[in-house]
Specification:
There is one protein chain. With 340 residues, the protein is α/β, with parallel strands linked by helices. Helices cover 24% and strands 25% of the residues. It has nine helices and 15 strands. Strands 3, 4, 5, 6, 7, 14 and 15 form a seven-stranded mixed β-sheet that branches. The protein binds NADP nicotinamide-adenine-dinucleotide phosphate. NADP nicotinamide-adenine-dinucleotide phosphate binds next to helix 2. The site of NADP nicotinamide-adenine-dinucleotide phosphate (NAP) has 30 residues, from helix 2.
Length: 340
């Protein structure tokens, strides 16, 4: 086999605030045929995820993470097909997933690859409901403690990739589940498609009043996907012994990390103490032992038709930057994926 000519999306410059397509460039690359112990992969689907905004920042998470170098391809998850193999464990036609990056071809020695059973679900689902966002929703449910009838669960970023599985999973416990999303269409999707009991439009001018009205018995669990000002708005609604599970801080990824303004921490701590609140954050990578049960349980729910899984599909690797930037501006419902 000869080398293949393909394309790769690279970071051209660091974004200032919300990312823009011009922060990236699409370049042509030559990928050689595999040597012994390697496979050549052809990407079928690429995932665009908010976490990439963390990776391309100049000072990711306040210095907690190393920034992606300029000129590198963002390490987004992808599903790919083996098109040539000199690796004993893989044959042509096998489907795999991993953090393969924003490129249409890749040589791999197999490290970090996970096999995908194409009979289980459409391939794009392995980037959404059966991929990292779905896994994050599942881990979030496991770490947030007992849920059930009589409890009110509030979810921010509810119409996004994580929220569109977390809400239905929380609903299956019998809890009362309320989602926050922006715009009427997304709020309708929450209640009509994603089994949320009620939805609150964060774009409404009277959002705070609507939020309070949507949780008349207060909030027992707040599943936080966005952070920023939303956290302050939800905090007063938490019940005695309420819990906050931090999955992500989407609203804070585009700030400069300086957090100007009055120090709100003493007020947060006082409220935590007065109400006996629990606040915990989690990273899905810390729970590899939950991967098998996740695939089994969520896979079964999919087979039984108990989950509606909205996806927003963009066509073509050249449109990966635009699809990624839309996460921070537009209002799509569910998981954003790019068909390559
Ligand atoms: N802990 C982990 O291991 C882990 C793993 C994967 C992802 N995450 C995190 O989980 C969160 C959700 O990820 P996702 O894949 O579901 O992302 P997503 O599909 O892009 O959805 C995120 C949602 O956040 C809302 N949002 C965006 N900007 C906002 C702002 N400035 N203020 C308030 N809401 C805003 C948007 O909904 P509306 O506009 O409709 O409100 C959007 O649908 C992210 O913070 C991500 O980093 C964590």
């Amino acid at each position: 086999m000869n080398s293949v000519t393909g394309r790769e999306v690279r970071l051209a410059k660091r974004p200032n605030g919300a990312p823009r397509p011009t922060d990236f460039e699409v370049v042509t690359v030559e990928t050689p045929a595999p040597s012994a112990g390697q496979v050549l992969l052809k990407t079928r689907w690429i995932s665009v995820d908010p976490m990439i905004r963390i990776a391309i920042d100049a000072n990711p998470l306040g210095g907690g993470v190393k920034p992606l170098p300029i000129g590198a391809a963002p390490p987004g998850p992808a599903v790919a097909e083996v098109i040539a193999s000199a690796h004993p464990d893989y044959k042509v036609g096998d489907i795999v997933q991993g953090r393969l990056g924003w490129r249409d071809h890749l040589l791999s020695d197999g490290a970090g690859l996970q096999r995908v059973d194409p009979g289980m679900a459409p391939l794009s689902h392995f980037l959404g409901v059966l991929g990292l966002p779905g896994f994050s929703a599942y881990v979030g449910l496991k770490v947030c403690g007992e849920l059930g009838p009589g409890q009110t669960v509030l979810v921010s970023g509810a119409a996004g990739a994580v929220g569109s599985l977390f809400g239905p999973l929380a609903k299956l416990t019998g809890a009362d589940v309320v989602g926050i999303a922006s715009g009427e269409a997304r709020c309708r999707a929450l209640t009509e498609t994603l089994s949320y009991d009620r939805a609150v439009d964060r774009a409404a001018p009277d959002f705070e009043a609507r939020l309070a009205a949507a949780v008349p018995s207060g909030v027992d669990l707040y599943f936080e996907n966005v952070g920023g000002p939303m956290f302050d708005q939800v905090l007063p609604l938490l019940n005695l012994h309420g819990r906050v599970t931090i999955c992500g801080l989407m609203a804070q990824y585009v700030d400069d990390g300086e957090h100007p303004g009055p120090d709100r921490l003493p007020g947060v701590l006082e409220r935590m103490m007065a109400r006996g609140l629990t606040l915990r954050a989690f990273r899905n990578g810390d729970f590899p032992q939950l991967r098998e049960p996740f695939l089994a349980e969520v896979g079964a729910l999919l087979r039984e038709g108990k989950l509606a899984i909205p996806e927003h599909v963009t066509e073509g690797i050249e449109n990966v930057p635009a699809a990624f930037c839309r996460l921070f501006s537009d209002t799509v419902v569910g998981k954003s994926v790019v068909r390559v």
